[in-house]
Amino acid sequence: MHPELKTPCVEWFGNINNNGYGRICIKRQVQLAHRVSYCHHNNVNIRDIEHLVIRHRCDNPLCINPEHLEPGTRTDNARDRVERGRGHRGERTGGSLLREDEVRDIRKRAANGESQSSIAKLYGVTSSAIHYIVSRKNWAWLD
Predict the structure, then answer these.
(1) Crossing angle, helix 116-123 and helix 127-134, to 10 degrees?
(2) 3-state class of 34 per DSSP?
(3) What distance in Å separates the CA atoms of residue 138 and residue 66, rounded to the nearest whole number?
(4) What is the pTM of this model?
(5) How far apart are CA 36 and CA 114, in angstroms?
């Protein structure tokens, strides 16, 4: 059970989509089970919240416990993912040109007085990429 929640998860045991969320067919329309649970327990029409996501405070996509569910925007959901360490970042994104050990080395070289342009040439990236790494605008979470 999530430490901040007073009740355990109630997991959906029906059909599951490719993203690991429960799904249910209502009136010939497939709905996400946690959305249906939220609407049912809060007396909300599912069509009235189409613009919102129903977020899991427990981070369990199978959970349908209404006490674990809360509405929010896609931005809220993305922020939750980052704050809770569930999002891909750094070299795990698949599109990163650098590895974590290289970013640490870049910061070390810059701290030792090496120019950002020479570091950029060494790693095959732009000087602005080095600037963002050194100023912690990129890879800020990395020690």
Answers:
(1) 110
(2) helix
(3) 37
(4) 0.61
(5) 57
Q: What is the 3-state secondary structure (H, E, C) of 47-107?
A: HHHCCCEEEECCCCCCECCHHHEEEECHHHHHHHHHHCCCCCCHHHHCCCCCCHHHHHHHH
In 3-state terms, what secondary structure has residue 119? Answer: helix
pLDDT in tens, 47-69: 899 999 999 999 999 999 999 99
Cα–Cα distance list, 15 to 18, 46, 97, 132 (Å): 10, 19, 39, 44
> What distance in Å separates the CA atoms of residue 121 and residue 139, rounded to the nearest whole number?
19
Assigned token pair, 78: 């993305």
* Six token digits for residue 8: 């355990």
The whole-angstrom separation of Cα 8 and Cα 13 is: 15
- Sign of the dihedral through C-alpha 102, 103, 104, 106: positive
Pair 8, 67: CB distance under 8 Å: no
Q: What is the 3-state composition of the chain as percent helix, strand, coil, each rounded to the nearest 5?
A: 40, 15, 45
